[in-house]
């Protein structure tokens, strides 16, 4: 049995009162480790350490100092890539080949991006905007950041929070999800070699730990990637002391497919974007809205693609095919199963639709067609390997269906009509519109949503700005 620990002030630490959480392997359901169940005293110790580290030096580092630290951290992720993948695969059930290629490479690249971005903070030019007065802008770190990350990409989401926070000169306390702390703890150990004690603290725990983090007076900003209810409760706690919040709260991405595409080719790409990581991705291509003339053919083609998807428990080491992990936990398996059990009678489950046999929390790739806009499974983020298909007859209806949920994170449009892509890019109420593709990300471009998907951007220079504050200095001369 492995034992994970917190990292406070650069050192390993158990929970002060010795409480622990069981950590399970989702491929088997067996408990293989424990992590601290941190309480308010642990959170307080971590925040105080972060505050000390900020006041006693990290805030005074130069962009070049922080760039060098982030480059060292990137090198550490690269050097320990295979080890991190093994840790992540045990904690999440992910396939090792895809995790190495799709997560470690981007994580290294994202840290290197923030290393460079640390030296490119922007502000208006210093100048005389009133006679006899000179104005300048200082862009400063916020102070201590409290970050909460989810279980779908534990180590990559940690990088999305750590990169901009550290680049901007903040210190932080990071809480990984209660079910997937392992890779974040290891990242914390590795990064402790590049950062002074207290700059990055890791506190393991459950929802009660998250509440203690949100209610603490020290953090100047709370940044969470998680569910809408979790984000709302963080925002409510932050509101009482007017702390800044940064919310990435999931999505239910519409995928609008017109009748002028190569249906088979589109289906192949959409299936990857819908089933990757078993659909446990806030941008997953889940909600296909297809023109009536191609909807049946597309649904059949998606179901055929589902046949080529394999479970991670069957992975040969290093294989690059689309292997999908189990769902993260039994509650998620029940949630996905319940949504499929309640599919209305006007819909048709073309493939999948019930939990897989055998050990672990596996659910097969599933395609449901004939759905309508108000159906529960269309209006709800499933966070499982499920693609729904509904039909539209004209462009306005497609946009109305796409925008007609509380989510606003990501969307895609599939068509060969260039003018239409421009019209839809404008009309879609989402933080990202992909055109003839779905799911790729780059470090230079922002990731973040509108509406109940939250506000604030991860990745890109916009994210770095979110982790800074702007001060106007005006001098009379
Ligand atoms: N594809 C990365 C999405 C991050 C949140 O789930």
How would you characterize this protein structure?
The protein has 477 residues and is α/β, with parallel strands linked by helices. The chain has 15 helices and 22 strands. The protein has helices at 40-55, 63-79, 81-92, 96-117, 154-167, 182-192, 207-215, 228-239, 263-275, 295-306, 330-341, 376-379, 395-403, 418-427, 460-466, and strands at 2-3, 6-8, 11-13, 20-25, 30-36, 127-130, 133-141, 144-148, 171-175, 200-202, 221-225, 244-248, 253-257, 285-291, 310-311, 323-324, 348-351, 366-369, 386-392, 410-414, 432-435, 468-476. Strands 17-18-19-14-13-20-21 form a 7-stranded mixed beta sheet, with helices on both faces. α2 runs antiparallel to α4 (96-117) and α5 (154-167) packs across α15. The radius of gyration is 23 Å and the shape is globular. The protein starts with a strand and ends with a strand. The relative contact order is 0.14. The structure holds the ligand NCCCC=O. The ligand NCCCC=O is lined by residues 152-153, 281-283, 439, 441. Residues 17-473 form the Aldehyde dehydrogenase domain. InterPro entries: Ald_DH/histidinol_DH, Ald_DH_C, Ald_DH_CS_CYS, Ald_DH_CS_GLU, Ald_DH_N, Aldehyde_DH_dom.
The strands making up the biggest β-sheet line up spatially as 17-18-19-14-13-20-21
Strand content: 15-25%
Could you give the count of β-strands?
Answer: 22
> Largest sheet, described in full?
7 strands, mixed
Measured between the Cα atoms of the first and last residue, the distance is 68 Å
Looking at the structure, what is the overall shape?
A: globular
- Count the helices. How many? 15
Low-confidence stretches: none
Enzyme class: oxidoreductase
Protein name: Aminobutyraldehyde dehydrogenase
Domain Aldehyde dehydrogenase: 17-473
EC number: 1.2.1.19
């Amino acid at each position: 049995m492995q034992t994970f620990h917190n990292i406070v002030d650069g050192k390993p630490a158990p929970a002060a009162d010795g409480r622990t959480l069981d950590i399970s392997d989702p491929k088997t359901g067996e408990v293989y480790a424990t992590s601290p169940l941190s309480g308010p005293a642990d959170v307080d110790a971590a925040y105080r350490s972060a505050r000390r580290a900020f006041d006693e030096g990290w805030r005074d580092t130069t962009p070049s100092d922080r760039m060098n630290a982030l480059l060292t951290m990137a090198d550490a992720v690269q050097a320990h890539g295979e080890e991190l993948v093994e840790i992540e695969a045990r904690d999440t059930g992910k396939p090792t080949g895809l995790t190495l290629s799709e997560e470690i490479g981007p994580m290294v690249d994202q840290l290197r991006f923030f290393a460079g971005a640390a030296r490119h903070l922007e502000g208006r030019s210093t100048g005389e905007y009133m006679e006899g007065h000179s104005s300048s802008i200082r862009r400063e770190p916020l102070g201590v950041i409290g970050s909460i990350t989810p279980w779908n990409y534990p180590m990559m989401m940690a990088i999305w929070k750590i990169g901009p926070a550290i680049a901007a000169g903040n210190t932080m306390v990071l809480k990984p999800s209660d079910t997937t702390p392992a890779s974040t703890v290891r990242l914390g150990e590795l990064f402790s070699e590049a950062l002074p004690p207290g700059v990055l603290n890791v506190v393991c725990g459950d929802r009660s730990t998250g509440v203690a983090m949100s209610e603490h007076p020290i953090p100047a900003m709370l940044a969470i990637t998680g569910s809408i209810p979790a984000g709302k409760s963080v925002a409510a706690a932050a509101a009482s002391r007017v702390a800044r919040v940064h919310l990435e709260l999931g999505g239910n991405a519409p995928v609008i497919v017109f009748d002028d595409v190569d249906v088979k080719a589109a289906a192949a790409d959409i299936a990857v974007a819908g089933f990757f990581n078993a659909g446990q991705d806030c941008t997953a291509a889940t909600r296909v809205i297809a023109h009536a003339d191609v909807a049946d053919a597309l649904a059949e083609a998606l179901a055929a693609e589902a046949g080529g998807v394999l479970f991670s428990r069957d992975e040969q080491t290093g294989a690059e095919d689309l292997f999908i992990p189990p769902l993260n936990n039994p509650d998620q398996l029940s949630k996905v199963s319940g949504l499929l059990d309640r599919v209305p009678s006007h819909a048709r489950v073309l493939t999948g639709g019930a939990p897989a046999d055998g050990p672990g929390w596996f659910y097969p790739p599933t395609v449901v067609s004939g759905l309508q806009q108000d159906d529960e499974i269309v209006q709800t983020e499933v966070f499982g390997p499920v693609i729904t298909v509904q039909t539209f007859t004209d462009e306005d209806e497609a946009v109305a269906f796409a925008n007609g949920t509380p989510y606003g994170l990501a969307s895609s449009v599939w068509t060969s009509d260039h003018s239409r892509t421009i019209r839809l890019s404008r009309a879609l109420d989402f933080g990202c519109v992909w055109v003839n593709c779905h799911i790729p990300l780059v470090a230079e471009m922002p990731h973040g949503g509108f509406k109940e998907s939250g506000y604030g951007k991860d990745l890109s220079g916009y994210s770095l700005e979110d982790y800074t504050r702007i001060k106007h200095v005006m001098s009379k001369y």
